[in-house]
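[Meeting: bench + compute handoff]

Bench side (C.D.) handed over the final construct sequence. Compute side (W.E.) agreed to return the predicted structure before the next meeting so the bench team could plan truncations. Sequence as handed over:
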Amino acid sequence: MRRSELSSFNTYTFFKLPSAWWTGVRLTKLDDTQAVVSVKYRWVNQNPFGSMFWAVQGMAAELSTAVFLMYTIRKSKQAVSMLVLNNQAVFKKKAKGLIKFHCTQGKKAVEAVQKAISNGKPITVKLKSVGTDPTGDIVSEFEFEWSLKKKSK
């Protein structure tokens, strides 16, 4: 995705996902296989323990998985609903500094959207996002189970 498209998507978050935007969640990379969403630890997204609030990490992680689905749905010009059915998270280290959430399952996400469109039945897909700090250490891992369904006309 070109820089202008990333900027456009981040503007979209201001209007449609304002809590993510105000806490600093930004899409920084999207290609066919990988999405990267970054968020920097700062006053507005802190917890009382001197690190990033878990829910801010969750918003960034969720967006890194959702963006594949959203982009594929938009390109298809089909009406497809998407909903998180389940999620799991593991926290391994305090999140400080610039945290980057990586989802490398773009191909799996695209295939799920295409399958939901082609057969018209609800499809579920599990997508994982891994958050790393500036040293490369994993701070948290999230898995989201998405439901996708082509909308009836």
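W.E. noted at the follow-up: The helical segments are 3-16, 18-22, 54-76, 106-119. C.D. will use this when planning the next construct.
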